[in-house]
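pls design
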């Protein structure tokens, strides 16, 4: 069982930056590929990015490529999402998710590829 707790959300102006953190419980954090998703009310949960267990591989949604960066510190059991050049359309609840394996599957963008989820943190970008 892996427990995930996100933090770092908030209100920011367009063009600003935020860094989200996701702290994970468990002794084998490096055995979990970690992802970030986001969801607006009334919309489906949307893939943002994923990082492999050792941090050697990452993938990003086209909508955030070049602006967002995922990283992880396995010694601290924490994954980060650095969000720069934020836009109003980035407004959503951001969720941290963990896979039961360190590897990234070919369908990494699907929520059902992930086994554990955090409670979410709200990010609001004002124009």
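designed seq:
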């Amino acid at each position: 069982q892996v427990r995930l707790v996100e933090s770092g959300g908030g209100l920011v102006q367009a063009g600003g930056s935020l860094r989200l953190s996701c702290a994970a419980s468990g002794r084998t954090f490096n055995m979990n590929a970690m992802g970030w998703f986001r969801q607006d009310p009334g919309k489906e949960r949307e893939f943002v990015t994923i990082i492999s267990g050792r941090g050697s591989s990452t993938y990003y949604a086209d909508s955030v490529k070049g602006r967002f960066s995922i990283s992880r510190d396995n010694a601290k059991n924490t994954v980060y999402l650095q969000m720069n050049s934020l836009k109003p359309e980035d407004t959503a609840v951001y969720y941290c998710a963990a896979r039961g394996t360190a590897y990234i599957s070919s369908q990494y963008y699907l929520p059902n590829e992930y086994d554990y989820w955090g409670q979410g943190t709200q990010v609001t970008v004002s124009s």
